[in-house]
Amino acid sequence: MSFFISGKCGICKKHKGYRLCLRIGKDICWQDCNDMRVDRRCPEECAYAVVESENLQLKTKADSMLEYTELLKKQIDRWIALPQVVFNGDIPKDIVQTEAGKKRIIEFLNNFQINSLVPLTYLKDKLSLNDLKVNDHKENYEDISRNFINFIISREWERSVELQKDSSKYEDQDFRMNYLKRISENYIFKKTNEFFLVSSALSQDKKRALVHLELNGKYDLTIVLDEIDGSWFIALKVFGKPEIVNSEIQANQQIAVLLSKNKLSDAFELLKKYSTIYVDSSDINYYWGMYYMFSNNTKKAREFLLNSVELDPDFLEAKGLYATVLLQEKEIEKAKRLYQEVIEQNPKEIKSLNNLASIYIEEGNKSEAKKLLEECLKIDPNFEYAKKNLEKL
Ligand SMILES: [Zn+2]
User: Fold this and answer.
1) How far is the CA of 385 from the centre of ligand 1 (A)?
2) Sorting pLDDT into bands at 50, 70 and 90, what band is 114?
3) Where is average pLDDT lowest: 18-27, 113-122, 246-255?
4) What is the pLDDT of residues 175-205, one digit of tens each?
5) How many whole angstroms from 35 Cα to the centroid of ligand 1?
6) 255 CA distance to ligand 1 centroid (A)?
7) Distance (Å) from CA 289 to ligand 1 centroid
8) Shortest CA distance to 221 belongs to which of 247, 204, 199?
9) How far is the CA of 49 from the centre of ligand 1 (A)?
10) What is the pTM of this model?
């Protein structure tokens, strides 16, 4: 029914149209849908039609909490301007002209449990109900996503750090600088100056949420958030619609296969394609690192492996490989520290045990080296590199 090939909203022509409006026969955005449906004249076949209800809650379909709350604001505007049965036909905005009237409305509101999505502050301001108690709003996953994008728009990259999951890792200055570099140099974020929250969804266990945003009226961004102790944090961002979030696994598999077959130019094409979408994938950054190792470009390999380790400090393969690159770049102390971290996290990681032993041999620390190599051969008696190193000693 839609003739808008551009996919834009048939009313505002600004946002994308995600739902077909049965009243005008065009795809429209939720803002324009709210403007129309609040009059309750939508055909009941439409899932977004508003079903009449007595109190300040509405039965209807909404794709996000924001959409529902904004619709309720429109409902509140209507509610305060029309005669209400609960007030014997009096009009709320007339009632509040006296202090007694204000009391009457507050008493009414205190009488029933109000859903936390009802914008009571809006009602309070509209009717100057200064004595109305409104519970503090606890930031939900949509709020956190909107805060994040607002920091992007105001280029306050630093302030976005604390919204990230496991942000304590950014006490490490290398990680922090790298995060800020990644985010401030992202070619879409650099030019983002407006956004529209399209929809959001919650996982069944309510521990993970996806928030779909539209940036500058054309770029799709899905923010994935995790709930930890009652608060929401950004786990990762995907430049695409929510339905492609889980496809990262397939992308990784395709790249891994190409790299293992040494098909470097094919791997390059896929890496280029997927790394603009899965910007926070530690795997894809790791594969870039491998790709540049195979191409003997240590400088580039180093960049991507740092990304990978920053994104997932528990990704030991990436950490081990990053240490190896640092070793090649003669950054011995940093490499040593990373190998030690890998061994701490996995004491049976023989490659790191052996590489650390090699550093100790170079440094003339024979007893430490010997200890590590013997440990290596205890785990795998046939590990050739360790055997050779032990012979050297
Ligand atoms: Zn619109």
Assistant:
1) 64
2) confident
3) 113-122
4) 999 999 999 999 999 999 999 999 999 999 9
5) 10
6) 39
7) 43
8) 199
9) 17
10) 0.90
- Contact present, 36 and 21 (Cβ < 8 Å): yes
**Cβ–Cβ < 8 Å for 232, 165:** no
Q: How far is the CA of 338 from the centre of ligand 1 (A)?
A: 52
Closest CA to 148 of 181, 195, 182, 199: 195
| Average pLDDT, rounded, for the chain | 93
Identify the CATH number of the domain defined by range 141-240: 3.10.450.50
pLDDT band at 323 (very low <50, low <70, confident <90, very high): very high
Distance 8 CA to ligand 1 centre (A): 8
Smallest CA-to-CA distance from 301 within 285, 316, 317 is with 285
- Residues 6+ positions from 88 with CB-CB distance below 8 Å: none
Question: What's the helix, strand, coil split of the chain in %, to 5?
Answer: 55, 10, 35
Q: How far is the CA of 27 from the centre of ligand 1 (A)?
A: 9
pLDDT of residue 135: 85
> Confidence band (pLDDT; 50, 70, 90) for 7?
confident
> How many Å lie between the centroid of ligand 1 and the Cα of residue 29?
4
151 C-alpha vs ligand 1 centroid, how far in Å? 25
Query: 281 φ, ψ to 5°?
Result: -85, 115
Confidence of residue 279 (pLDDT cuts 50, 70, 90): very high
* Residue 186 CA to ligand 1 centre (angstroms): 28
Sheet holding 208-215, edge to edge: 195-202, 208-215, 219-228, 231-238
Instruction: Tell how far the Cα of 84 is from the centroid of ligand 1, in angstroms.
Output: 31
Domain ranges of the chain: 1-49, 64-135, 141-240
Which residue, 228, 270, 33, is CA-closest to 141? Answer: 228
Report CA(71)–ligand 1 centroid distance (Å).
14
